[in-house]
Amino acid sequence: MVQMKVSFITVCFKTPGLIRQLLKGFEAANVAFPHEYFLVDNAAGDGTGELVRERFPWVKLIEAPRNLGFGAGNNLAMREAQGEYVMLLNPDLTIFPDEIEKLVEFADAHPEYGIIGPRLLHPDRTQQRTFHRFPNAFIPLYRRTVLGRTPWGRREIDRYLMVDADTDKVLEVDGLFGAAVLVKREVLDRIGYFDERFFMYFEDTDLCRRAWESGWRVCYAPVAEFVHYHQRESELKSIWQLCTNRIARVHIKSGVQYFLKYYGKPHPRASENNQ
Questions:
Q1: Where are the beta strands (DSSP E) in 169-235?
Q2: Which of 4, 29, 109, 111 could make an SS bond with 82 (beta carbons 3.0 to 4.6 A apart)?
Q3: What is the pTM of this model?
Q4: Total structural domains in the chain?
Q5: Using one digit for the tens of pLDDT, what is the confidence trace for 132-164?
Q6: What range defines the domain where residue 215 resides?
Q7: What is the full DSSP assignment across 57-77?
Q8: Has residue 103 been placed in a domain?
Q9: pLDDT, tens only, 75-100
Q10: What are phi and psi of 234, to 5 degrees?
Q11: Nearest to residue 91, comparing CAs of 134, 46, 127, 158?
């Protein structure tokens, strides 16, 4: 039996157009090693399932019974994945030939890294900040409200997003955002999958933190790059908008859950990043 090298996983919710483009790009990349691809559809009935079955029959489609969120959706596929690595890919990515191979080659050469993130670019080829320091309790508020425009809010966001870091170098980081990450299967076997109490946001930070706690390292590796059509997080003009902006509420709620989970516990990584 051929050893599966990488299990790719994409979780989607009402994005059939993005899924079509992502999978077309993946096909064109012609990945060189044995792999499998899981698509978890969190919005069965929107046409995504039919599209995949007809146009991309090589994809292993999992139709969730309801919208499970990012972490729980990925977990459905992780439980079935057979690869030496698991790679999470957001629907709004563009993949280029040879880039995935570069990332996996780097991972093979650096077994100390349990979770690795590539360079992600905006469509205009400018750099996205896809890695971060461990957050403080106010980061969700700073990123979602006008508090982020204050001098101290801006300073905390810049520190969190490591704007002082050289993005052309391999960096050990506290955490990675989950838009595109490569995870060793061995890490998941040791620490478990995403914590499903986080519907969306902070589940990736939590996974990275648990990896550090178990002795693995997390790194950003600009040896490979993808384009990410990431939309800027919407900012609330007033606290009352929390009543109507569900995504902002989910973000802040997940932040609260994260800090309650780790309240009173020291960071697992004693470095200058956490001073």
A1: 171-172, 175-176, 180-184, 217-228
A2: 4
A3: 0.91
A4: 1
A5: 999 988 888 888 777 878 888 899 999 999 999
A6: 6-135+166-232
A7: TTSEEEE-SS---HHHHHHHH
A8: yes
A9: 999 999 999 999 999 999 999 999 99
A10: -70, 140
A11: 46
